[in-house]
Design a protein that fits this description.
Chain lengths: ~60, ~300
């Protein structure tokens, strides 16, 4: 669940997104203007730069 | 021709310690509460027979001490009387990172897979807040930040503690590789390492930050190489109405310690106790120079 900058989503390049994973646990990304709340079972749809973090944290 | 004018000494004007190696001054104390030189002799008295009073007396050792009450705290006060090593940071309108972020517990927080630095965020310097900052890994890729005083939380954007543990981050900050994350409202940012972020939960690091300032002195006390330097002192009483001067020069002084009081609504006024030693170079402990004023002759 990506709850910030929705208005700008159209501007994001498709390659910068990953929407194929299901969150294995709750997690919050708080990075500058981004505050992204991920709930277990949600489809993870976050900027690509956060994917390594989510892998490390065992979210995806 | 009559009697000379009485030599009357009043008050204290200044006290200037100087280096014995070349006589250059450390500085000058001007905000003084007082200074007193004291010679305390131990005597050996000879009693004998039925006489209740001593037949003779000889001085044995003489304890020579200078005590001073100082009401200001220049750097050299700490250097001379606490053996402190001093690091000065020049004035900086945009603030300073006085001590860079270094690991305290564990080794992963400040690392290539953690945070590579705490820096001032360009354009947000006005939001800097002075203090000791502690960064703690709360997961493999997130950190919380703590500050050990809120004394400067009113600088720039106001800040508040988030909890009783002095945390300033409402939500743990995500550390992203090779990218800076802002510590909101504090004018600082943490830059992620170059590799995949993977810190050990609980690892901590600390840094010291100064907001816009006119110069900072960091005086470290109690190091293993602590030394209390011998020095000379020139102290003067206040200049009298008749323009007379009274100066005491102490050639070889050494002090070791004074209290630093932080009391509610009270100025910190330490009292120095300084031993005066025999200076073999000048064959003396001290010298008094009393200068009569021009208007003092009768």
């Amino acid at each position: 669940m990506f709850n910030k900058k929705e208005d700008n989503e159209a501007e994001e390049k498709p390659s910068k997104r990953n929407s194929s994973s299901i969150a294995k646990k709750d997690f919050v990304i708080h990075f500058n203007d981004d505050h992204i709340v991920i709930k277990k079972g949600d489809v993870v749809n976050v900027p690509e730069k956060y994917l390594p973090n989510l892998k490390t944290e065992g979210v995806i | 021709m009559g009697l000379s004018s009485n030599r009357i000494v009043y008050g204290i004007h200044s006290m200037a310690p100087y280096r014995r190696s070349d006589d250059t001054p450390y500085g000058i104390f001007k905000v003084l509460g007082g200074g007193a030189i004291a010679f305390s002799a131990e005597t050996e008295k000879l009693f004998g027979g039925s006489n209740k009073f001593a037949w003779a007396s000889e001085s044995k050792t003489i304890d020579s001490t200078f005590t001073a009450t100082v009401k200001s705290m220049p750097d050299f006060l700490f250097e001379l009387y606490l053996g402190a090593s001093i690091v000065k940071t020049a004035s900086a309108a945009l603030g300073s990172i006085l001590e860079v972020l270094v690991n305290v517990s564990g080794t992963t927080l400040v690392s290539a897979t953690g945070v590579v630095g705490l820096t001032i965020k360009a354009g947000s310097e006005a939001d800097l807040k002075d203090g000791k900052y502690v960064v703690k890994a709360v997961s493999a890729t997130t950190v919380d930040v703590y500050v050990l005083s809120d004394i400067a939380f009113d600088k720039g954007v106001d800040a508040v503690y988030e909890d009783d543990l002095l945390k300033i981050t409402a939500t743990p900050l995500t550390i992203v590789a090779a990218t800076a994350v802002t510590i909101p409202n504090f004018g600082l940012e943490l830059t992620g390492g170059v590799g995949a972020i993977a810190m050990v939960v609980g690892d901590t690091a600390q840094a010291q930050v100064a907001a816009s300032h006119g110069g900072v002195s960091e005086m470290t006390i109690g190091q293993s190489q602590t030394n209390f330097p011998e020095h000379g002192i020139v102290a003067l009483s206040a200049k009298r109405a008749d323009q007379s001067l009274f100066e005491i020069e102490m050639f070889k002084a050494v002090g070791s310690g004074f209290p630093i009081a932080l009391e509610e609504t009270v100025y910190s006024i330490p009292e120095l106790t300084i031993d005066l030693l025999y200076d073999e170079c000048v064959n003396a402990i001290a010298k008094i120079t009393a200068t009569a004023g021009e208007a003092s002759s009768c």
